[in-house]
Amino acid sequence: MGLSSSLFSAITVTVFLVLFSYRVDSQPVLDSDEQESAYRVLESVNSEVPWRALFPDDLCSSAPHGVVCDFFEEQNETVAVHITELSFGFVSDYSSNPPCTEDSAINPLLSSFKHLRKIFFYKCFTGARVSVLDFSVFGSSLEEILFVENPSLAGSLSGKLGNSTSLRRLVLTGTNVSGEIPGGLGDLVNLEQITLSRNKFSGEVAVNFSKLKQLKILDLSENGFEGEVPESIGGLTELLKLDLSENQFSGKIPESMKNLKNLEFLDLGYNRFANFGIPLFLAEMPRLREVYLSGNFLGGQIPEIWENLGGIQGIGLSCTGLVGNIPASMGVFLRNLCFIGLDNNLLEGTVPEEFASLESVNEMNLENNKLRGKLPFSPKFAAKMGEKLKVQGNPQLCVDESLRSAKIRGSLGNLKLCHNPYGPSQALFVGGISVQKASHMLMFLGFLFLLP
């Protein structure tokens, strides 16, 4: 029985070694033309590195970080290997992609990789002008386009995304890409992220967003977009982040945004939305964590919409033309608030007592309003906030003796000391007669009128 067991083990090992040897010998290698194209692209990105000497073998078996391959079944039922990802630009020690130089360029042979799924360039194009690729040549294979911090990348996206039907992520940020967003972007139904921030885009956003049911991030911030925001943006029901800040959008904030029930981050700051007040539909977006509307002259009072928005951590309503009092309900319901900016408005009345109970807040800006009365904060609260508690520009605000004596850093030391009407010495006089004596005289006169 021992002999049979030993024989069986020997046969098993032999078969395994034969199969393993066959697999190694039969593993496909990268096509020589595709390997040459890869060398040329690497050399265009960084000619100082001897790529051919460092990686002389099959690039899909031994490749620099940032070059990724995958297997494909060909029409004749054979298996081939192709490059599917190309990432350039040092990000960190954990992602040591091929480094770029001031002379980095895009080699035309990059367009020859017909199985490419991902293109990533980080801080590569900082010198001479580099034109935007025609991404449509990659057809339906391309899933991710990421160009981050490439100020010399220029040109237009018009007509360059047409065949990218599998595209999931489109990220162009910190470039000189200009013109309008191609309307066909709304037909790329697999998109999950559109980040086109800090570029030179302009004109109206003539995109119908209603088909992009998988989109989770839409960031068009810091461009030159103008006109009204499309109502179709309300159809992005899976959206988590919407950032349209620092453009020239105008008109009314679309009412259709109330359909964005999953939205967590909303920034419409520093546009030209005007005279329609703070949108009441914010009350219907219970998953909001941050909302920034600063820099739009919305006008009106702060509405009572906070009861179902207890998850909010940041609110920016600076420079929005707000009038009236600060609702106490903000301090009651917004218990997770970390930042609130209400500065540079026309708010009046007192700072709500409830604001003193906002334990999570670490920055509060109430500067340059018409607030009055005593600040409700304890020395401990004010000390925690320090210079992040901003109240200057409200001449009628005052602090009590405990805050004044605490010598807390920031603007509190510039506020006047509150007068205590219940102290031992009365300071109010009318015509040289103290208020207390005047009240006694009125009581005496009233008594005389009651006499028969």
Automatic annotation (TrEMBL):
Keywords: Glycoprotein, Leucine-rich repeat, Membrane, Repeat, Signal. It holds the Pfam family LRR_1. Transmembrane segments: none annotated. GO terms for cellular component: membrane. It comes from the Eukaryota. It is found in: Cell envelope; Membrane. Residues 1-26 form the signal peptide. PANTHER family: LEUCINE-RICH REPEAT DOMAIN, L DOMAIN-CONTAINING PROTEIN-RELATED (PTHR48059:SF36), POLYGALACTURONASE INHIBITOR 1 (PTHR48059). This is Piriformospora indica-insensitive protein. It comes from Actinidia chinensis var. chinensis.
